[in-house]
Amino acid sequence: MEWITQLDNLVSSGITAIRNPVLTRFFQMITQFGSVFVIILVSLGMLGYFAYHKKWTHFRVFFFTVTLGEIMNETLKWAFHRERPPLPWLTDASGYSFPSGHTLMSTITYGIIAYLLFVKDSRRKLHPAAICLFVLPVLVGISRVYLGVHFTTDVLGGWILGILWIKLVSWLNTKH
Prior knowledge:
Elements: H1 2-18, H2 21-30, H3 36-52, H4 56-80, H5 101-119, H6 128-146, H7 152-175
Helix pairs in contact: 2-6, 3-4, 3-5, 4-5, 5-6, 5-7, 6-7
């Protein structure tokens, strides 16, 4: 798996070369959208929204998608035991590196919101909010590499696993 190391090193060195105070501050703010605190806050808000509007199927799908996504994240981190990059970190981080939990959970959380509000609900067309929900996990993933707390392949893994999880959930949801 030498290509993985080469890719990670190439991107890390390129990122280190473009670091500057403005980008650092931007990515320190963006990365918060994948933090445990914000994911829990957003999740509670969405569960409240679905309950208030009596969208119990949406409530269950959202709850189980995000909850099982977090279990998948922790299980994979434990299984891979990948250490974090040796770069100087520009934010706090703990635990193992693969997959990027911020990336995986932002992809799952914002992806399932986009699916439930803008894809499943056939009355709505592509909406600017849906585009934001798709772009946000991309920026969160980039922030994790920029801030030095993840390798590129940790982020790629988070995006791929998150997208596959949303695809599976949406497919299962159409079967019922």
